[in-house]
Amino acid sequence: MTAVAPRRRRAKLPLLNLVGAAIVSAAVLYVSFFPVAGLPALGAAFNPTTGAWTMAADAQVTDRMLHLSGLQQPVRVVLEKDGTAHVTARTDHDLFVATGYVHAKFRLFQMDLLRRQGAGRLSEIVGKVALDTDRFELQLGLLRTAELEWAQLPASDPLRDALLAYAQGVNDRITEAESTHQLDAMFTLLGYHPQPWTPVDSLLVKGDMTQTLNFTDTPLVMALLNKSLGTDLASEWFPILPPNQQAPYDPGPYGKVEPPQGIATMTAMTDAQSASAQAVYERLAALPAGLVSKGGASNNWAVAGAKSASGGALLAGDPHLHLTLPAIWFQLTQESPGFHTSGVSIPGTPGVLIGHNQHIAWSLTDAQNQQTFFYMEKEDSKTHPGMYFWNGAWRKYITVSYQIPVLGGATEHLTVKWSVHGPVISERGQTTSVWWSGNLPSQDLGVLMNAGRASNWQEFREALRGWYSPTHNFVYADDKGNIGLISAGYYPQVAKGQPWMPMPGTGEYDVTGTIPYDDIPQAYNPPDGIIWSANQRQVTSSYPYYIGTASNFFDPGYRANEIHRVLSQPGKLSASDMQALQTDTHDFLASEIVPVLLQSLSKEQLTPQESTIVQLLRNWDFRMEINSSAATIWSYFYGWYVYEVFNPWWKSRAVPVEMQEISDTLDQDLEAWTLHDPSNRAFSAPGVGSRSAADAQRAAFHKMIPQIAKDLGKDPNSWTWGRVHLRVLENLAEVKGLNYGPRPDRGDGRTPLAAGDYPSTHGPSWRMVVDWGSGTFQGIYPGGQSENPASDWYMDRVDTWFAGRLNPMLTAEQAVAAGGIRTWDMRP
Amino acid sequence: MGHAAVRRYVAIFLAALLALAGVLLGLWWAPFVIGVALGALDRRARIVVPPGAAIGLIAWAIPLAAVHIQYGLGPTTRSLAAIMGFDHQGVLPVVLTLLVGTLLGATGAWLASAGRSALTSARTGT
């Protein structure tokens, strides 16, 4: 017995060894071939020849000769030292093939993310974490709209060939990248391959932008405010027309003189309506940032040749968007028989969105008019299941089914119901559908291409006649000294009702059409020679159409006021003045309120610390500069002032909307009351007794000091703005280690150099200044041309952008003359 | 050094070349296959696993070194580290990469030698 046991053990050892080897080998092979615990498949992802290390080779850009199957003629691409691309083609078709190739070479992963977002296919690559987003996008209908747009595009429309050619170029690059193992490393790390690009994908990317800029939840917010605050306060505090003084660019006279017909004053909501609004609001609030527009912030303006130092028209534009790495923009010039454009494009779309051609320059800001309407559908599940009542009859919902592949999970089945108003987005209690102008099939990309080919105002204006959504303020300046601004797009009009809140879906309150093109806000060669927009309401109170309320549709107007103040000063203006105004940190609201505050404190017994604070404010130039302590004090003060006045109301009325969400409107109210109605009943909230604006200011002043001291120390001189106000450029794939910043930065949410929030992640995504007199064109965006973080072009423009400087926008010939270029010769 | 030892080193060298060629052709799992072939030659793990590991290391390290010489790996390693949440500790992706290559070669050799050992044991009953 004892002699046999060791032999048995020896006999078992090889088997145990084999089992051990098999287990370890299986584990190594498994983690090499498959992603585990958040890590990519290690073998596929990290091998040095086809894995993520290829980003090192991809980061090197050299002179090349390459063949693209979609080309008809040779094309030349010149890449500047900073990667700005100059595409020169002999046919328009080839121009778009080459543009597609260039975009995909530098931004393919970004493009894939954008189309996946619009198509509700993010879960396929990141798992169930994106499932809510995918469900919502498919419900909202971007994919459906893009498919309709493509289906409705006539065969003879030049946009059709442009989109097909562009897709061909993208696919040429995908094929090349796969064969040379140089797909962007994120594909490798996430373990998937990009599908071929299609024209619908380009239309989806455009749809993403529309959604980001004008799909709003404002009517739901208004409903909740109405219910909680009461109709009287809600209508007083959240009016249609802004309560403060603003600077509309189109002062009239207007083409139609009757007041808006059928638009009601605010009335009370029922409990059911309120509950419905609450349900939809919560659903939208739970979505990731960026899917619901929370108000825009962009600037543009133009100065006529007569008011310009160079004698030629000036134009400046800086659209404010989420600042990401890679940026939303890709800079290029396009030269072909039909196109001579230079500016910035959105990867995934074929043309230049903001820029100039040989004769005109243009830029955009969001026009902000109401483009989202919520309808409460009338249903009777007992007698008419699956139907809704509209225009006197019961109708069946249209249903559309989708499959959502989920990485690491079962495919999700989704059925979307559509009423005549649009997709149903909530069935909790009350079925609610949404009418959104982004769901109107349009050919906006073709409109942009035509606008880019215009050579004068008439052609430009006519090209924009077909623009739908998002409505934009298109500023214009040409080589003849003319300037113009037109807020092109769809302006939904309802027959009657309260469009700023959810409305009954029975037909009487439907969107009936849009404002006639000749009546939309616009101006051409105004007598004072200046024109500007900064998301403010474009028109005065006498404008005869409903275009949205002051509450969270339009900007409070401080940037517009400041821009108007600077531009309207006597004397001639130069390109450098434009550049300075783009980085202007003068807080218009502060310049109004701080003197009033100082007056309110003038008879107060102040501590030495308080006296220092007052002195800092007294000496302040109202500029939100990094080294300014007064800027910090002002920012804290106004936040406390808003809180002091409104929070008692919020508590006593149990308002379910965060004050931060509607801060733009509260800022306007408080500004107007402080300056013109200091005894407004709002200051005497329940529980605080009767008081005036000055009383509230003093209370806020005394309460804010301990808070700042706690955050920044006791010495007011050390409370510099740069300590609390930081800027971050966020990596698009949400890889924090690839962010830029946080870095102290100037400006705030009310200055032309827009930098709201803490840290600020939105702001001037592209700055452009054009001077037709000297023939100079300049621009900059924060980031770089390449999405590859190992590339020199990943964030090479950031420091220049932070410094407020601009780069020259060269032609291909100028770029060659400047040297340091790479050239790609493309052949069929 | 005897003929057997020379033959062994030559075999290992050729195996390493073969694995390297496979990796350069995009067959990143080649070290595992070569390791299996190597392991099948000898049932003693202590004899085949170290060369298997070395083959895996060489087959992945040389292309990585070539990338470094040609393009420079600094920005890439830092980027990969950031993506993986290693806070720009650029050395970690390099270590991880070399570790994966090494493990592929070593486990291939171990698995095959263990299989041969078990087979031999089953045949001989020892």
What would the keywords be for this entry?
heterodimer; A: 828 residues; alpha+beta; 7-stranded antiparallel β-sheet; B: 126 residues; mainly alpha; 5 helices; 0% strand
Descriptive overview:
- The complex is a heterodimer of chains A (828) and B (126).
- With 828 residues, chain A is of the alpha+beta class.
- Chain A has a domain at 590-724: Penicillin amidase (Acylase) alpha subunit, N-terminal domain (Orthogonal Bundle).
- In chain A, 36% of the residues lie in helices and 19% in strands.
- Chain A has 25 helices and 32 strands.
- An eleven-stranded mixed β-sheet of chain A has the order 1-32-2-3-7-8-9-10-19-20-24, with helices on both faces. In chain A, strands 4, 5, 25, 28, 29, 30 and 31 form a seven-stranded antiparallel β-sheet that branches. In chain A, strands 17-18-11-22 form a four-stranded mixed β-sheet.
- In chain A, a hairpin with a 6-residue loop joins β8 and β9.
- The termini of chain A are far apart.
- With 126 residues, chain B is mostly helical.
- Chain B has one domain (3-124).
- Helices cover 82% and strands 0% of the residues of chain B.
- In chain B, α1 packs across α3.
- Chain B is elongated and about 55 Å long.
- The mean pLDDT of chain B is 91.
- The chains are: A alpha+beta (828), B mainly alpha (126).
- Chains A and B meet through α1, α2, α3 and α9 of A and α3, α4 and α5 of B.
Task: Determine the oligomeric state from the structure.
Answer: heterodimer
Distance between the ends of chain B: 32 Å
Structural class of the helices, strands and pairings of chain A? alpha+beta
Q: How many structural domains can be distinguished in the coordinates of chain B?
A: 1
- Mean of residue pLDDT of chain A? 94
Of all protein chain pairs, which has the greatest interface, and how many residues does each chain bring to it?
A-B, 46 and 53 residues
Overall 3D geometry of chain B? Answer: elongated
CATH superfamily of the domain at 590-724 in chain A: Aminohydrolase, alpha-helical knob region
